[in-house]
Structure prediction request, 193 residues.
Amino acid sequence: MNGAIFYASKYGSTREYADWIADATGLPVYAIDAHEADPADFEFLVLGSPVIYYKLIFSKWVRRHLDAVLNKPTVLFTVSGAQAGKKLDGWIKDSLPPSLIRHMHHVALRGRQNRQRLTWYDWFMLTIAGLLNRDRQAAREEVQGFDYMDRDSIQPVVDLIKELQAANGSDALPHATNRQNGVSEPAGSEDST
Prediction:
């Protein structure tokens, strides 16, 4: 099966993960704002998005291409400071159509926040969020930044892609999952930490 990676990125972490996944799998990689390729032209898709202000930033693009995405196996990787779990699952639920959530395989990757590279607005909003956040570790990261980028963490995405590449048109990856560090949970499960 032939596939492609489509991603959105604001500060570069998702782009870096997309490039690492492309290097590991040989898939072509496209920034969604470049309009270089049509997702309908591929047999499976790998979609990547950062989570900014509790939302996936490519949700409008996904809705525009929903018919093409739902007609083929889909792997989603999200990039954020949040670990896989109920909080991240809720943000995905608020960003994507339920039909896609039931259809896709999700892998949560941890990203990077460099305070010096933020826009003034993002810096200000994260500072306020950090002051109001009851989770002290998350508050510290919102105020000081963080770097969880790890090339090895793409392995669950690479494994899913290899399953799809080997499928040769069969019904590959029939059950949607959430994965982090190789651990799989059914998509939408109550305990997907």
About this structure: The longest strand covers residues 44-52.
